[in-house]
Amino acid sequence: MKSKNIKIATILPYKENYTHSKASAASLWVSEFLKKSKFKKNNYIFGSTLNKDYLSKNYINIELKSIKSKFKSTTSEYVGKLIKKISNKKFDIIEVHNRPLILDYLLKNINSKFIFYFHNDPLSMNGSKSEKQRLGILKNVEKIVFVSNWVQKRFFIGLD
Q1: Cβ atoms within 10 A of the Cβ of 160, count?
Q2: CA geometry: angle at 121 spanning 106 and 70, to 5°?
Q3: Were both Cys, which of 9, 12, 42, 102 would link to 47 (CB 3.0–4.6 Å)?
């Protein structure tokens, strides 16, 4: 496989707004990283927003119905729709940003290589609070990217 032909899916948290008017920190990070990437033509960004002024042309919006529902899980709806969209496209690499629970769902349902990005404290996020969960992430991904030394140190607390 030629490195220029690698297909990458970048998964943002559904609450992360990938738009010029309301971009959040992880969206800005992804957008800036993408501008310099040699893989930008085959890298697709997945997220959910109501706005249409996307930060890049390769953004794929996942429309969610349960975003304000007290009766349905928005994470479950988001992951279900992601799995449907991603499964057909056969991505070589799937990058998941800041949502260990989404990573867990995707690992169980999609055969691909995964890279996980921690933007925030791993000990405060569902899916990476316990040592067992963090060991599972270490075991099941190709790489983990920490946006700061502090975040990296937090991840390894209690791990040998």
Answers
A1: 5
A2: 60
A3: 12
For residue 116, the domain's CATH number is 3.40.50.2000
- Identify which of 11, 1, 18 has the alpha carbon closest to the alpha carbon of residue 106: 11
Predicted pLDDT of residue 89: 87
pLDDT digits (tens, 9 = 90+) for 9-56: 999 999 899 999 999 899 999 999 999 999 999 999 999 998 899 999
Q: Is pLDDT above 70 for 121?
A: yes
Q: Answer whether residue 148 is part of any domain.
A: no
| Backbone angle region of 140, left / alpha / beta, with phi > 0 → left and psi within -120 to 50 → alpha | alpha
Q: In the chain, what is the greatest distance between 2 CA atoms, to the nearest angstrom? A: 46
